[in-house]
Structure to design on (1800 residues):
């Protein structure tokens, strides 16, 4: 049986079939890898550019960034507080999920895109305090609708910036490159 | 043929395709991202990404320590001590730390057994109406809290039985005995408070004050004070007990005396001291003969003389407690020890004996029910005098000795349980109406002892209820309203918070406290912020013991039930206590003396064990006249050969996955014998030990310690 | 390429953060153990594994017996946790640099994500204070709600140990920096020291002579455990009296 | 090498012992066959000395030496460079970034690895391994026979065959390249 | 002997020929045929039964159990505090020890031109490679996160995270890699002429297989010269590598701060121990090959067991010396913990292991191997060899999990109880045997050209009335 199968594989048809199978496997793997790199689906296609272009500061909705580790996602009440007053948006179909969520008391399930693994303890506050602007890491929000992660947030990316910022200050360099600064 | 092969091939390919699809689904963004749900309404005092700390009160035992709970995004993360709370000054014990394992325990009761809360409330209201008030009884936890006040009010104005407070911890602490002894010696009932911290020498007669006794944190702090005073020499600590407790382990001198002879020893020391001081025995001590006492207690006379000489020139604080009071002569022992203090004349002085202060809104002393009062309750249940029993905050099937027959008596009553956890009693309830966990609840609680200031400790929810539970106070108020009539008028409150505000109203505007507020709203806000209200006036009661030395103290001999060859000394597990067994990390804490985790053991003196042919981890049956339990043998070097000891805390048949069917409950061995104050003579049993089976490899006790390193077991004996 | 200045030996000897433990007042109550477990997301392992020496305690309380009944006594309880040695024996043996010396905090770091689980560090620790994740210890829902977000939840196959609550150090430093000041003595402490009912554990900066912990450390009565090995431990023990 | 190559033939003479083979080599040389036109194949190592020929040049020791130096340099890179190549200082215990004793170990191991690897590679390079092209060979060689290959002009072919036969060759025939 | 005539030259020579392979030459073609026959012999049903059983053991005990270990964690094994290292590392040390015999036989004996080595160098070298494979597996099994093993390899990654060169484990990795690579190459080089021989004598897939392996080897002067040169370099260079490997393995222990482990003599002690178990294993393998494979009675004779027996005796004596040396220094050192540990070895629950070790490692070899007749007997010497391997495994068991039970923290002392390591260890043993079985069917076990080379070099020579063997150097 197996012998026959192998014989069949040696025929032109078999060769084509095995070629197809091989290609299918390779493309499945490629597709799989590509899939892992895709942006997640968000409950609302939140237009960052619209909000930023209205002049709303990042810290208005993400105030945690100035105070501590997490920037945070604004509460739905905060969203609705404004949108409820704007007639155009109050009944907009685009905002229906928000309206539903607010009225039903359910939560929207946002998916943060700028993430680090759980063994990395990132803290926004010192970065803001050091004069970093949000867009340096998160990209220019005046241009995007749904937030994308413009950086490959790897350890190298963190460290290069840390080293650059430390400059010749040995003490600062030691602090900023200490394993225990982020991993504990 | 080739067609067949290709079909087979196709099938294989199809299978491969399915597998690929499955793999690819896992490759989606979900594999890298997590979903995050924002708050509906951000609480104004919450900040994104910042922890919020709430002050509340620990409910793991009745002491009433202040906690500060760290919460993060609506989850309780960590309990820490409330540094402003005068009782614990920012410290916590292991059980306080593990509270969160109760809050987030996977086995909690998730909702009322009636399905809806309306039905549950209706059921309670029906019970109020269905039965005569005298047929309704409330059994509650030991804590003197707002719910107790609420139920007391309800009972008082409707004629129901006065609520009983009970807990196994109270039974092992023999609170009734201490109170009665105080009454007999000082003429004033109350919970004695021993100022260990400022004492020079402490003689503890069985008191396990570093474990779970009355107010563990306050006494531990006192002990630290005894040991590291800057202004004086390191205090000395002598412990008299038959089995070395975790407290005794810290003693400079540990004196193993026969159970029940603590009072005699105290009196003998008193006699020796008074003879040295004045040449003659004072009347209080005249009844004893030191030589005979030494013989009876199983120690040398020289030891007594040495202790007396230690006593003569200094102030000694003598503390009665623990298994010493759990004897048929427990009251006499307590009186003898309290009287010994009179020799130091330390009543009401730093380093001496006081009676505990009354809490701010407390009218008189009240103590938890003694076992004999519980016995009365059980008898009433049996006789049908009580038809509806409401249980909250206590697990009587587990915490009462089996011999009282509580479980059987339940057949005669309708049981309404407010348990948050599916314990043994809750399993028997007709209606299970779960209360919130203590970290989800409002409330206040009076601190019964442990602090010089009167303290009303406040509780508030630190997280919103995780399950469909409801505050018992709310349930009772709603039920009373539904029942109408005198019930409604007894509890004329909107809800629990309304009741609490009403109760603390007397403190609003009181300027003697840790804060003062002119209106209820401000008072409540501060009350929650600081975790309670503390009167800034030291209010310990100074007992009058002027006559103590001149009244002869009775020297009753203890009587032991049963014909076993061993005295049986049960003690409360310092890490688990009566309700910690459901918390996995408490189970995994090593016992301070034996370092055993997750199980029950019986401590036997190694020499005696050798005589009996017992080795570590052998399985034995311990039999008293009341019953028998099985446990693993632990060869304990610091126990009298005529005594065996067992910890209380395990042996649950319900109570969640971590507690169920684990270890044994020594309370099953207790007989129904009481001392003169009505406390159970839990240490008044004699037991037999028989071996069931040999130790099995890996089947014995989980110990933190190494048998090889600590006991030299298996090392091959002495080195060559 | 960076050429960091070689750190002088004296720094390792004093250390930066230190701890003192008064064994005379330690009652062995296990509050520190529980507090540590709650703060640091330590797994419980169940009866069988804990009895077989696989418990994950970062701090354990040791005690021995002296003498024979009736003159038997328990030796002073000895809480034993990572001593944050200046000359740590665990560090050089890790092939993956998963346990390294923090230059900034002078602590022994355990970088969980770098650990491959050779267990050489634990084997080489004379204090035997490292805990290994022998299995994937699960916390049944909703117990995981209690996890501290400041501390990594370790997974199967990695080593872990006491960190001197480095997350608290970082939080305190961050707060102090945001307020433009230095961290004050007693502003924060480790979970164990915070819980200890007898105040037997004191934690702080040992390199600043004015702090409480430095004063206790330098009073001359303390001993360092196994100091003869030259490990330069940063925990000082005070026996009786 | 001015002759046209088409005329050249390869003769293969099989001998059962070294001595006649050595004689054959000598005689061939006398009749004007150059040393590089003679090739001796054998089933056991037959050295040049046995055949009275110059020993075959080998580069293996040189390559090994080169490999050792390369290995040493790799080791030196690992020990002296990488500790400073981290983007951040990693310190373990109180040990120096480049402690001497471990350095010796690493240098030794990697030097040896480099040397042995390159020795192996040297054999491949010198012997043109692997080589799966058709080659002139007869299986009898591995049976212990000694084969002498002679390149000669077709005109000399018979003369040389005679010569070889006279010297004790078991068989002499034109060699053909074949798949081994 | 007395009645034998010393002048009976013919019978004397006959006897010598019977005894010594080198004096008993056969035509090369005949030897080739014998070796090929041994290899191509149709496997008996017994072979298949053993093969299938071993395959099943490898599949179940090694790979399936490994899967369990990886998915469920090291808790499946018996390791815990303080025995963080268990049987996996015992096996690692054991297999590395076994692997030492191959190099010892083929490199050291080659360097010193010990002629008896010729027929069994390949069999011994295979032991090196196959043993190291098991050692590598055992190390990987030991790791808590096996799938990240590549973090220990120095390669320029994105973060320039190089392994920690301070760690003995990194040295180990470098040394074992070096050793595995070089011993494999050293196995392969002398194999080339033999596979070329097999290529010339086989058909079908084997022909293709050997053709690829033979790399186009024909046997030109140049090829022989390069091969010889390379083998000489290898023979000399691999000896220090071999010593370094087991020394570094011993440093995993000796560089640690464990009582009893910090011993300066551990390096040489481990090397001798490795040779001890390795020679034992070599004797066993040789006996099995001689007993089971066709035509092997010609190639492997009593003289070989005799030689190995002598080596075993010498090594056993050296091992005893080192063991006692280590023991007495530690004992006199007086360190409290070390003394408790030493006492624990003898009088603890595993005291039987300690005594067995001494008996099978010292007493039995000394009692048996002094007798030339006994040590020439394959049965006797394999029993002794198996005993030595059991003893040496016990020795490593005592050094690793039993010694670490005792440390400076008596509160944590605990004795190790093996779990999943036992089946997995059996799995590595099965894989080792399986690899040998497969190799016996795939590659010529006897380096025929080396044997022939040796036979050519040997001849009888007369000194007065005595006929002696004379060996000429052919290089």
């Amino acid at each position: 049986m197996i012998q026959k199968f192998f014989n069949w594989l040696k025929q032109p048809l078999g060769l084509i079939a095995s070629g197809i199978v091989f290609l299918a496997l390779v493309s499945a793997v490629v597709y799989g890898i590509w899939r892992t790199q895709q942006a997640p689906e968000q409950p609302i296609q939140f237009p960052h550019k619209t909000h930023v272009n209205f002049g709303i500061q990042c810290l208005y909705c993400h105030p945690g960034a100035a105070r501590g580790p997490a920037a945070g996602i604004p509460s739905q009440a905060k969203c609705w507080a404004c949108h409820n007053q704007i007639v155009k948006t109050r009944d907009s179909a685009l905002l229906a999920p928000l309206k539903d969520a607010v009225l039903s008391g359910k939560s929207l399930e946002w998916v943060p895109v700028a993430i680090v693994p759980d063994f990395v303890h990132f803290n926004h506050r010192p970065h803001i305090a050091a004069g970093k602007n949000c867009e340096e890491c998160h990209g220019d929000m005046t241009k995007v609708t749904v937030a994308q992660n413009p950086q490959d947030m790897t350890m190298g990316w963190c460290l290069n910036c840390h080293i650059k910022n430390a400059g010749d200050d040995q003490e600062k360099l030691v602090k900023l490159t200490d394993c225990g600064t982020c991993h504990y | 043929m080739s067609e067949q092969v290709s079909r087979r091939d196709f099938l294989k390919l199809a299978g491969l395709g399915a597998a690929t699809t499955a793999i690819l689904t896992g490759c989606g963004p979900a594999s890298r991202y997590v979903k995050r749900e924002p708050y509906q309404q951000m609480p104004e005092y919450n900040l994104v990404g910042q922890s919020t700390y709430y002050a509340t009160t620990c409910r793991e035992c009745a002491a009433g320590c202040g906690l500060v709970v760290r919460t993060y995004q609506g989850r309780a993360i960590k309990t820490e001590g409330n540094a402003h709370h005068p009782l614990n000054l920012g410290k916590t014990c292991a059980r306080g730390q593990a509270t969160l394992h109760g809050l987030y325990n996977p086995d909690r009761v998730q909702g009322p057994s009636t399905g809806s809360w309306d039905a549950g409330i209706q059921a309670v209201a029906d019970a109020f109406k269905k039965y005569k008030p005298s047929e309704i009884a409330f059994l509650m936890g030991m804590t003197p809290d707002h719910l107790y006040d609420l139920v007391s009010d309800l009972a008082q104005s409707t004629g129901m039985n006065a609520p009983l407070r009970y807990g196994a911890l109270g039974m092992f602490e023999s609170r009734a005995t201490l109170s009665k002894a105080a009454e007999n010696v000082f003429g004033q009932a109350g919970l004695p408070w021993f100022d260990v911290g400022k004492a020079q020498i402490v003689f503890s007669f069985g008191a396990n004050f570093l474990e779970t006794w009355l107010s563990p944190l306050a006494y531990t702090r006192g002990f630290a004070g005894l040991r590291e005073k800057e202004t004086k020499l390191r205090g000395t600590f002598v412990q008299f007990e038959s089995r070395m407790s975790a407290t005794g382990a810290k003693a400079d001198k540990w004196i193993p005396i026969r159970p029940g002879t603590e009072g005699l020893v105290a009196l003998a020391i008193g006699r020796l001291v008074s003879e040295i001081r004045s040449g003659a025995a004072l009347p209080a001590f005249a009844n004893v003969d030191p030589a005979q006492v030494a013989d009876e207690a199983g120690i040398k006379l020289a030891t007594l003389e040495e202790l007396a000489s230690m006593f003569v020139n200094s102030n000694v604080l003598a503390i009665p407690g623990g298994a010493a009071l759990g004897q048929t002569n427990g009251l006499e022992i307590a009186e003898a020890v309290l009287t010994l203090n009179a020799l130091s004349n330390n009543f009401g002085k730093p380093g001496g004996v006081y009676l505990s202060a009354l809490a701010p809104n407390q009218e008189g002393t009240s103590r938890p029910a003694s076992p004999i009062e519980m016995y009365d309750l059980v008898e009433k249940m049996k006789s049908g005098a009580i038809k509806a029993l409401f249980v909250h905050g206590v697990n009587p099937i587990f915490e009462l000795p089996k011999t009282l027959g509580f479980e059987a008596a339940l057949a005669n009553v309708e049981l309404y349980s407010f348990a948050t956890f599916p314990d043994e009693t809750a399993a028997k309830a007709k209606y299970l109406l779960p209360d919130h966990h203590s970290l989800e609840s409002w409330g206040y609680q009076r601190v019964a002892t442990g602090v010089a200031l009167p303290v009303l400790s406040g509780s508030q929810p630190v997280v919103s209820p995780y399950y469909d539970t409801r505050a018992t106070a709310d349930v009772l108020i709603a039920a009373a309203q539904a029942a109408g009539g005198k019930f409604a008028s007894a509890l004329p409150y909107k809800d629990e918070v309304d009741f609490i505000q009403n109760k603390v109203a007397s403190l609003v505007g009181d300027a003697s406290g840790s804060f003062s507020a002119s209106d209820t709203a401000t008072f409540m806000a501060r009350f929650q912020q600081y975790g309670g209200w503390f009167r800034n006036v030291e209010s310990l009661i100074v007992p009058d013991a002027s006559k103590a030395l001149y009244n002869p103290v009775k020297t009753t001999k203890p009587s032991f039930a049963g014909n076993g060859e061993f005295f049986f000394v049960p003690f409360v597990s310092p890490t688990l206590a009566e309700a910690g067994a459901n918390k996995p990390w408490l189970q995994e804490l090593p016992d301070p003396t034996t370092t055993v985790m997750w199980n029950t053991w019986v401590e036997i003196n190694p020499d005696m064990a050798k005589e009996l042919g017992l080795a570590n981890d052998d399985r034995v049956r311990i039999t008293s006249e009341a019953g028998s339990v099985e446990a693993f043998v632990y060869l304990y070097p610091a126990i009298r050969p005529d005594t065996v000891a067992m910890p209380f805390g395990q042996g649950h048949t319900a109570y969640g996955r971590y507690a169920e069917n684990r270890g044994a409950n020594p309370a099953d061995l207790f007989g129904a014998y009481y001392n003169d104050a009505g406390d159970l003579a839990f240490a008044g049993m004699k037991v037999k030990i028989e071996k069931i089976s040999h130790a099995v490899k890996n089947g014995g006790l989980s110990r933190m310690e190494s048998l090889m390193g600590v006991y030299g077991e298996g090392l091959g004996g002495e080195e060559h | 390429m960076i050429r960091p200045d070689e750190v002088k030996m004296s720094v390792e000897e004093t250390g930066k953060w230190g701890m003192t433990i008064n064994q005379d007042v330690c009652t062995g109550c296990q509050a520190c153990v529980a507090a540590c477990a709650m703060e640091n997301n330590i797994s419980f392992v169940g009866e069988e594994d804990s009895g077989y020496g696989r418990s994950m305690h970062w701090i354990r309380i040791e005690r021995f017996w002296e003498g024979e009944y009736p003159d038997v006594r328990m030796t002073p309880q000895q809480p034993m946790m990572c001593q944050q040695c200046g000359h740590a024996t665990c560090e050089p043996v890790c092939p993956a640099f998963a346990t390294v010396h923090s230059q900034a905090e002078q602590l022994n770091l355990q970088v969980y994500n770098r650990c491959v689980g050779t267990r050489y560090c634990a084997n080489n620790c004379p204090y035997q204070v490292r805990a290994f994740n022998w299995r994937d210890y699960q916390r049944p829902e909703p117990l995981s709600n209690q996890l501290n977000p400041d501390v990594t939840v370790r997974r199967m196959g990695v080593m872990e140990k006491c960190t001197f609550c480095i997350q608290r150090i970082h939080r305190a430093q961050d707060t102090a920096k945001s307020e433009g000041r230095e961290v004050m003595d007693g502003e924060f402490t480790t979970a164990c020291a915070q819980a200890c009912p007898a105040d037997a554990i004191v934690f702080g900066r040992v390199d600043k002579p004015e702090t409480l912990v430095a004063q206790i450390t330098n009073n001359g009565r303390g001993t360092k455990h196994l100091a003869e090995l030259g490990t330069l431990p940063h925990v000082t023990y005070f026996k009786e009296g | 090498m001015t002759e046209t190559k088409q005329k050249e033939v390869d003769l293969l003479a099989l001998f059962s012992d070294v001595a006649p083979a050595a004689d054959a080599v000598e005689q061939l040389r006398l009749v004007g066959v150059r040393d590089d036109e003679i090739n001796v194949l054998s089933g056991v190592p037959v050295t040049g000395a046995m055949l009275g020929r110059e020993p075959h040049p080998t580069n293996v020791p040189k390559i090994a030496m080169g490999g050792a130096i390369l290995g040493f340099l790799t080791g030196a890179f690992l020990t002296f460079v990488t500790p400073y190549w981290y983007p951040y200082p990693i310190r373990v215990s109180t040990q120096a970034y480049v402690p001497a004793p471990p350095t010796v170990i690493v240098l030794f191991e990697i030097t040896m690895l480099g040397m042995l690897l390159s020795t192996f590679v040297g054999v491949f390079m010198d012997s043109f391994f692997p080589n799966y092209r058709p080659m002139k060979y007869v299986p009898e060689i591995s049976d212990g026979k000694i084969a002498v290959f002679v390149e000669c002009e077709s005109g000399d072919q018979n003369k040389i065959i005679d010569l070889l036969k006279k010297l004790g060759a078991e068989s002499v025939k034109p060699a053909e390249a074949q798949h081994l | 002997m007395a009645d034998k005539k010393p002048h009976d030259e013919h019978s004397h020579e006959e006897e010598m020929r019977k005894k010594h392979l080198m004096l008993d030459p056969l035509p090369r073609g005949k030897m080739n045929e014998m070796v090929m026959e041994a290899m191509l012999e149709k496997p008996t049903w017994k072979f298949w039964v053993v093969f299938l059983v071993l395959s099943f053991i490898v599949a179940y005990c090694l790979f399936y159990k490994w899967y369990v270990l990886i998915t469920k964690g090291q808790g499946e094994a018996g390791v815990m505090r303080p025995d963080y290292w268990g049987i996996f590392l015992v096996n690692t040390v054991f297999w590395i020890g076994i692997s030492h015999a191959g190099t010892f036989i083929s490199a050291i004996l080659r360097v010193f031109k010990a002629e008896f080595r010729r027929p069994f160098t390949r069999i011994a070298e295979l032991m090196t490679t196959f043993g190291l494979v098991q050692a590598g597996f055992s190390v990987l099994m030991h790791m808590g996160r096996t799938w990240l093993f590549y973090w220990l390899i120095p390669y320029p990654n994105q973060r320039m995270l190089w392994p920690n060169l301070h760690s003995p484990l990194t040295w180990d990795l470098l040394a074992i890699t070096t050793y595995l690579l070089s011993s494999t190459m050293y196995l392969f080089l002398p194999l080339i002429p033999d596979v070329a021989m097999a290529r010339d004598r086989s058909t079908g897939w084997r022909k293709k297989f050997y053709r690829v392996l033979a790399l186009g080897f024909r046997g030109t002067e140049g090829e022989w010269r390069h091969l010889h040169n390379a083998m000489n370099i290898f023979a000399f260079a691999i000896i220090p590598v071999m010593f370094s490997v087991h020394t570094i393995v011993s440093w995993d222990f000796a560089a640690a701060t464990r009582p009893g482990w910090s011993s300066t003599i551990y390096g040489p002690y481990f090397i001798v121990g490795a040779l001890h178990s390795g020679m034992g294993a070599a004797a066993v393998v040789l006996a099995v090959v001689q007993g089971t494979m066709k035509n092997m009675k010609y190639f492997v004779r009593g003289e070989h067991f005799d030689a190995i027996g002598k080596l075993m005796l010498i090594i056993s004596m050296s091992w005893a010396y080192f063991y006692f040396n280590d023991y007495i220094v530690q004992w006199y050192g007086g360190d409290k913990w070390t003394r408790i540990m030493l006492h624990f070895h003898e009088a603890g629950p595993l005291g039987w292991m300690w005594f067995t070790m001494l008996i099978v490692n010292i007493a039995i070899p000394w009692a048996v191997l002094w007798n030339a007749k006994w040590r020439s007997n394959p049965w006797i010497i394999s029993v002794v060899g198996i005993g030595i391997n059991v003893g040496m495994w016990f020795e490593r068991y005592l050094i690793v999990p039993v010694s670490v039970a005792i440390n400076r923290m008596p509160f944590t002392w605990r004795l190790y109880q093996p779990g999943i390591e036992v089946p997995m260890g059996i799995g590595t043993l099965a894989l080792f045997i399986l690899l040998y079985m497969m190799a016996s069917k795939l590659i010529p076990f006897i380096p025929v050209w080396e044997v022939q080379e040796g036979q050519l070099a040997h001849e009888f020579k007369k000194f007065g009335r005595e006929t002696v063997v004379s060996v000429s150097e052919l290089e």
